[in-house]
Specification:
By secondary structure, this protein is mainly alpha-helical. 75% of the residues lie in helices and 0% in strands. It has one domain.
Length: 210
Amino acid sequence: MRGPTNADDVPAKFSDLLRIRWVRSSLILGAVLTIMGLIVLLLLKSFDVSNAWYIADAKAFVVKYGLAGIFLITIIAGTLIPMGSPALVAAAAMLGVPKVPLIIVATSGFTIGMTTNYVLGYYLGRPFVEKKTTAEMLREMSRLWEKFGWILYAFFGIIPVLPVELLSLICGMIKARLSAFLVLTFVSRLIVFAILAYFGEQTGFWIGGS
């Protein structure tokens, strides 16, 4: 079946999302960044930096002050400002921040940021949302929402590289149900941050950084 080729086409099934240009490019970027991150970790392991003074200092600083900073950064990351909150959570866990508080704080901060987007979309409407993206992407995302609804939102929430922040603005713009929005935002990012925190913690053990 032919995938969507322009803003007027809507995927017939969920797997056809991969045929949309900006979805595909986002996933490719995510894969590239993941590979680069793994290369950095291998270099850290190879050069045995676990006992370096700067690693010890970074660990002490993050453990002492990290949660407050992570909370602030994930609030900002929940808006349209790219702050790399998934990588931040993994790095914080790698440096020794306890997993459970880290996951709760990061998830709460991100949910607050996303709710801010919802409120902006709700009260400022389409003119505001149109300023945050291209007309083509807004049409595509609006039509995808009409086709898949909350399934689309949950999928975007689980895959960190997809523009769920923009979709949260659209949810506000169309006045989607707030209770469903809050639950799906919190649960999807809770899953993501739990996986990343566990990965970060195990990576810290592996390179001797925690």
